Amino acid sequence: MSSVTSRAHSLRQRGVFGANASDRVFRWGLFVFAASVLAIIVVLGYELAHASLPSMRHFGWRFLITSRWDPVHYVFGALPFVYGTLVSSFLALLIAVPIGLGAAVFLAELSPRWLRGPVSFLVELLAAVPSIVYGLWGIFVLLPALRPVQVWLGQHLGFLPLFQGPAYGIGMMAAGLILAIMVIPFITAVSREVLQAVPASQREAAYALGATRWEALRGPVFRYARAGILGAIILGLGRAVGETMAVTMVIGNRPDISLSLLSPSYTLASALANEFLEATVQIHTSALLELALILFAITVVINAIARAMLWSVSRGMAQGVRE
Amino acid sequence: MTSAPRRTRSRVWEAKRKAANGTMWIVACTATVAAVIPLVVILYYVAAHGLPALNIAFFTQLPKPPGETGGGMANAIVGTLVLVGLASAIGLPIGILGGVYLAEFGNNRFGWGVRFAADVLAGVPSIVIGILVWVIVVVPMHSFSALAGGVALGIMMIPTVMRTTEELVRLVPLSQREAALSLGATQWRTVFKVVLLAAKGGIITGVLLAVARIAGETAPLLLTTLGNSFWSTRLDRPIASLPLQIFQYAISPWDDWHAKAWAASLLLVLLITVLSIAARYVTRGRLRAVR
Amino acid sequence: MLDTAVMQHAETTAGADHPIKIAIAGLDFFYGRFQALRNVSLNVCERQITAFIGPSGCGKSTFLRALNRMNDVIEGARTQGRVLLDGEDIYAPDVDVVALRRRVGMVFQRPNPFPMSIFDNVAFGPRIHGFARGAELEDLVERSLTRAALWDEVKDILRQSAFSLSGGQQQRLCIARVLAVDPEVVLMDEPCSALDPISTLRIEELMNELKENYTIVIVTHNMQQAARVSHVTGFFLHGELIELGPSAKMFTQPDDKRTEDYITGRFG
User: Fold this and answer.
1) One domain for residues A72 and A140
2) In terms of Cα–Cα distance, which of A46, A311, A296, A294 is closest to B116?
3) How many CB pairs under 8 A join B and C?
4) List of chain C residues whose C-beta atoms are within 8 Å of the C-beta of residue A197
5) If you placed Cys at C172, which of A112, B157, B212, C150 could pair as Cys (CB 3.0 to 4.6 Å)?
């Protein structure tokens, strides 16, 4: 313990943040750790940009719209991957949003108390299953199950460009399905929190006017929760875009652009997983790194938009009543 | 109700309202079932295919050469433990101490910049983080290594741990800090002894959840640890790990390896379930940290 | 059908032009195992203002919410006894709660307008019940806002968000919202407790106007308010109705000593 004199001494010197030496070291130490996060992001951005310079210089803007990816002849274009990433992700959202929102409504509004815990635990567990396990299941269970379905689709709806071509199970449809399963728990969890954050007084006011549960939900509750739910969906999109292993195991990994859901495809993330270690030529590696840069940029933008929506929700609710 | 209303209400209208409400119920319940079924199906297959292949050899022996049956995944199991340990050693200090900084001193532009960076980092695909570590660790070292894998996984842990820590440290009431400070404690002592102790449960939850997340990650390990069919725990050499092994076995042509992939998946899923339950158990009855 | 206690109250307050609107007989209410209301019996007469006072936690708000079955939304809530609206028990098994709540409306303690425009707030009820559309709806909204003494202040800003109004205006908006579904009874749960004195007076004036056409039941912490606006006042304590009678009498010469103690401020 410090003596009386040194305590008196430090009384004079101590400011709001504790001006004595050990506290200053403490504060600076913490600062360094916090700053390292900023450093990581900065380094990430820099390294990706720097390493893709050769590719950027060589291919220029045409890189983004070239649809050929040919490592043998050194022709590289990002379009097949951007297409594959966006289409598989939107396909996933198409399936995941109704299911995820429906489950969120059930958990937030309709479920009896005793059921809520177990069901939300199961949904959480779905989010915790690793991507590789989804991929394993995808290869050995989903694909064989999809094949007959796809054959049927090709036979009966084959006049649509969506269902043309050979049906091997592997391809865009499988990727979309697996992504959907992986995204559902995110949408459910975030949407449910948003719904639960709507003040009870809003629901009460609606019920007191004679509204049914559905009318209260689609009226004031949804108005309140609108931005947050949109944020949840966009967050799910971000997850789908970055997903690697499960997709790479079922999508076929062929850089072709095709309207058909039955044809194999390629996403930015799975291209990186597949080809990065095989690339021996510098231009190949650089092109891959440019793909990584594109993927990074897409996810940063998507997540920023999602966070902005979610943040506006908490802000909007705080300024609800003026007095 | 049979009393005459003051306004004429159409029977059809009322029936439509009831139908709409009923439809909502049906859709929501169906959606919930649809959301839960995939989990049940996946867990079933993992258990059904994985259990038969789990035996003593699985835990104690090294992999046999491709094409031969038998052997085990001892190196991968240990490898995963090594990587998780490494990742924690890197990710936890940065996450926890960074979170403490944000909670205590972070109400300025720098703090918001750090928070934004952590959010961005949380959204970066794991493969891209693998690429980053490839550039800054693997290339200079001229070798794939356990260290690189640990760094990659550690980076991935940071956002979760940081966010949880910050929220929980903030929740510790001012009165606790004031009590300590008024007894003459320095600020760092206050934080370490009083505040962190109070937030301990929640921080542990954040750590458990972060570990659960990275234990199953494959993509970053593809580019940093490469994988290893032999026994190795050296930090500067490639190392085997469960997720990577599952991937390699899954895409191989051999049934024996497929079976082992299921077994390893079962192990991973069990590990993650236990961690998730432990995380919930720690915060049972307490305030759950808001996202 | 009605027990003696209820008949006594009927004699004191009912008359030819104020028939009984709601008759409550032996009402018990439980939150799980806790009994919040014990054997409450009384009458509410048409086109009168009936006020209920009592210390915090005495069950008066719970009682109010029992009148339009708002307690149903609480898990673990159980109601026993009868509440007769125009002679029909609202807790009978085949009752359409949605229709009940249209006839018995409620205004809450804190103003809770929807995150929509002023117009949409008032139009919400008529829209879901299918009352009116288009020009008819606009007329209905105008009439409701006029009856709530708010029309002049908002007629030019109908499309603006309801949150742009002051607290007192928001509460009047909530009243207009209830009036728009054409209720027979309006329940008010401490409607002025979140408002400033001037807004409070305006709402009390409003209550006086409204009683010409609607039956009003209010719960209030403010005894002066109860004395000012109501015809009949009831005193609740620990979930029991201690005394009910004409307001003039209740505040000057109550029968029960507990009522007198509360009114003179000896507790509560």
Assistant:
1) yes
2) A311
3) 24
4) none
5) C150
Distance CA(B89)–CA(B163), nearest Å, equals 18
Q: Are strands C185-189 and C240-246 parallel, antiparallel or unpaired?
A: unpaired
Q: Which of B158, B145, B149, B142 is nearest to B210 (CA)?
A: B158
The token duo for B146 is 């356990």
Q: How far apart are CA A194 and CA A321, in angstroms?
A: 19
Query: Do B135 and A47 make contact, defined as CB atoms within 8 angstroms?
Result: yes
pLDDT band at C263 (very low <50, low <70, confident <90, very high): confident
> Which residue in C96, C128, C130 is closest to B1 by CB distance?
C96
Tell whether A323 lies on the interface with C, counting CB pairs under 8 A: yes
Nearest Cα of chain C lies from the Cα of B151 at a distance, in angstroms, of: 47
Between the alpha carbon of residue A178 and those of residues A84, A245, B259, B273, the distances in Å are 14, 11, 21, 21
Cβ-based contacts of B3 with chain C (< 8 Å): 85-86, 88
**How many Å apart are CA A238 and CA B46, to the nearest integer?**
27
Residue A206 lies in a domain: yes
Give the DSSP H or E segment for B161.
Answer: helix B146-171
B103 close to B165: Cβ distance less than 8 angstroms? yes
Q: What residues of chain C lie within 8 A of the CB of B5, using their CB?
A: 99, 103
Out of B136, B184, B261, name the one closest to residue A7 (CB).
Answer: B184
CATH of the domain at A117: 1.10.3720.10
Structural domain span for residue A12? 2-39
Question: Nearest CB to A209: which of C101, C165, C167?
Answer: C101
Average pLDDT over residues A63-87: 86
Confidence (pLDDT) at C6:
45
* Structural domain B56-290, CATH architecture: Orthogonal Bundle (1.10)
DSSP state of C204: H
C193 touches chain A (CB under 8 A): no
Interface check for C232 against chain A (CB to CB < 8 A): the answer is no
Q: What value of ipTM does the predicted structure carry?
A: 0.88
pTM above 0.95, yes or no: no
Q: Do A269 and A248 form a contact (C-beta atoms < 8 A)?
A: yes
In sequence order, the β-bridge partners of residue C185 are C104, C215
Residues of A in Cβ contact (< 8 Å) with B104: 30
Q: Can you tell me the mean pLDDT for C54-72?
A: 90
Q: Which of B128, B120, B275, B31 is CA-nearest to residue A128?
A: B275
Long-range Cβ contacts of B225-228 (<8 Å, 24+ apart):
B225/B79, B225/B83, B225/B144, B225/B145, B225/B146, B225/B148, B225/B149, B226/A277, B226/B144, B228/B75, B228/B79
Tokens of A7: 């305590």
Domain match, A6 and A74 both: no
Question: Strands C232-237 and C240-246: what pairing?
Answer: antiparallel
Contact across the interface for A29 and B97, Cβ inside 8 Å: yes
pLDDT category at C5 given cuts 50, 70, 90 is: very low
**Residue of C21, C91, C103 to mutate when probing chain B, most B C-beta within 10 A:** C103
The residues of chain B scoring below 50 in pLDDT are: 1-6, 287-291
Please give the Cα distance from A73 to C25 (Å, whole number): 91
